[in-house]
Structure of Biotin-dependent carboxylase uncharacterized domain-containing protein:
Amino acid sequence: MIEVLSCGPMVTIQDRGRPGHLSQGLAQGGAADRRALDEADALLGGAGAGIETPGSPIRLRFDKEMTVALTGAPMKVTVGDRALAWNTAQTLAAGEVLDLRPSGQGVYSYIHVAGGFQTEEVMGSRAAHLIASIGRVLEAGDRLPCAQSSGRAQKVAATDRLGGGELRLVPTPQTRLFPEAELERFLATAFIRDVRGNRQGVKLSMQGAGFATEGQLNLLSDFILPGDVQMTGDGVPYILGPECQTTGGYPRIGTVISADLPRAMQAVPGARLTFRFVTPEEARAARPAKPVVTPLVRDPSEVPDLLTKQLISGVISAQGEDA
């Protein structure tokens, strides 16, 4: 069991969500940064549901020895008077308190334990989906049941997805409705991630006029997916997130590919974002490989070139003041 001692706003339990319910009006939901779940899975050999915090501080007390993985947007982490490295899995003793504070890098951070949190399942998932009134935010005093398992101290080579950058798009059914000049202007525009954003989506700001299709007011409502870049009536783009609506009548100029959606959701307010169209084949080829995990502390017997390594540093004198 893990007890939540203190907790900032909008912290929830998330996993990979509930696929297959779009026709019933329920978006898949789940973690905003799916790559962080992949990294936690690699670190723990299967992570299950974990805690997602959108830059909110949180303190957790462990009632038994447990291995915890920390992935996604880096936070400042301490256990007592010692700091823990990010993108690692480490074992905490019973009674220890894990204290996480935002660092200003990225948006969504994740805390997983070996075997996953065993909170209530709804429709095959433990993920909170607040827009659909499934689950709730975590609060101080919550006690989260966990699986009985432990893991190794390891680190993962995390992909670079913080700070904005280029996002690759594939066309939507409405892409062809935008005039060629509008598409070219869209691709040439440097957008800024607005302060307004959440798990439903993030607003982008830009210089100049908005973007519109021809005959935009006559469009029928259509299906909506996470990653869609949807234009509002004034032509302002939003990148839709995991809890987006399932249908809408505003045109979608393109869809951010799954490999780049974590970069879009992890962009902090003020981050610069640009877009580029790719083919479906290129989108499939862009899927990231399985995360690479290495031991956090290596056994000397596993280092064949041990004698070539610098094992100590600094020189002291036997005649120095501290000798």
Observations:
- The mean pLDDT is 89.
